[in-house]
Amino acid sequence: MKKIAITFLLATLLGACQKDNPDKEMSVVQLTTQEEVQNRTELDRYILEKFNNAYNLQIVYRYSENDISRNFRYTVPPSTAKTLEAVNFLKYMYYDPYNRIAPSGFLQNYSPKQLILIGSHAYSDTGSRYNGAATNSVKIELTAINDRVFNTNSDADIKDIDERVLRLIYHESSHLLEQTKVIPPAYERLSAADYKGSAWTTAWRGETYLKSGFISAYASDNIHEDFVEMIARYIIYYQKNQCGCPAADTAHDTNGDGLDDTTYNTWKRAILRKGYIWEEELTKADGKNNEAADYTGKEIILMKIEMVKNYLQREWNIDLDALRTEIHNRHANLPNKDFSQFEW
Fold first, then answer.
1. Which of 183, 134, 168 is nearest to 316 (CA)?
2. Binning pLDDT at 50, 70 and 90, where does residue 264 land?
3. Long-range contacts of 54-57, Cβ-Cβ distance < 8 Å, separation of 24 or more
4. pTM of the full predicted structure?
């Protein structure tokens, strides 16, 4: 009796499968190699031309269990529409700025080689949420693509994109540079006694890491994370000169920064709802966790960023301030961008 029931069930399921003819133009399920070639969609052809061929980059958006980190649970693929938005956003905010500022051929050799786009957030078995991952800086996994709003005026959406997408890709791609050409030894000496290794997650109370010369708590893990965090955060942080509020006279500039106090404070409140201001972080770093230290955290960060700029200019012919300006000009234009169209 059981055999008859099982046979009937299998026949029913097979019949259902045979009637199921998914629209491959909208499929987010991984195809076999032969199917992929035979059934390339416009999105596939777009990614092939604009990314695979242009930058030796593979973008995976159809669900492929082998490409997703083993500790990522409960994930779903991104929709084709959100995939198009995501790749256009990355082109606009990462590939195009570097193409304008970096030497010819730079991205072909020194950018991530695989981007895995995941539609949902990823969770561990214990419920912890992952915001993304990277493997040797060559493979980057970006999560929650279906939830990202790439052209928005929303403070929450802007902060999410800056921290979870842009910081991640600027950070990880910078690892490729420092793994290729050595970081100046003087950089490490500035914080050699304060690197925390894996204990960085519990080593600091609040933002005390700043007074030890780290731009983020994660930067205190080791010199490599320190160096690339400095690059990524310098790029995404706003700067005072973006206020556009020079003081008409000294009476309106009590701290001597050249800006109108009232206008600047209004601008600052608006910016801090969606991000960070470089000079304000330096103000919080202006002190010492250890009074015996040679320098304040602010002095260390300023020396580090100067070394970073010199390194990028000398070793890679990249002007970090020019790159940052290009990125921020584009960032300000994000609400006006339509990433939902093919840009052939």
1. 183
2. very high
3. 54/95, 54/108, 55/95, 55/107, 55/108, 55/111, 56/108, 56/113, 57/111, 57/112, 57/113, 57/114, 57/115
4. 0.86
3-state helix, strand, coil in the chain (%, to 5): 55, 10, 35
What is the distance between the alpha carbons of residues 126 and 106, in angstroms, rounded to a whole number?
41
Is the distance from CB of 87 to CB of 56 less than 8 angstroms?
A: no
pLDDT score at 131: 64
Average pLDDT taken over every residue of the chain? 88
Write out the two tokens for 290.
């250890």
Can you tell me the distance from the alpha carbon of 86 to that of 148, in angstroms, rounded to the nearest whole number? 8
Q: What angle do CA 344, 332, 232 make, to 5 degrees?
A: 90
What are the tokens at 331?
């960032």
Token reading at 276: 């960070």
Q: Which residues contact 94 (CB under 8 A, 6 or more apart)?
A: 166, 169, 170, 173
Give the max Cα distance, the chain.
95
Instruction: Write the DSSP assignment of 4-57 as a string of letters.
Output: HHHHHHHHHHHHHHHH----GGG--BPPPHHHHHHT--HHHHHHIIIIIHHHS-
What are the φ/ψ torsions at residue 130 (nearest 5 degrees)?
Answer: -100, 135
93 Cβ neighbours under 8 A, 6+ residues apart: 166, 327, 330, 331
Tokens of 232: 């990524």
Give the model confidence (pLDDT) of 98-117 as tens digits: 999 999 999 999 999 999 89
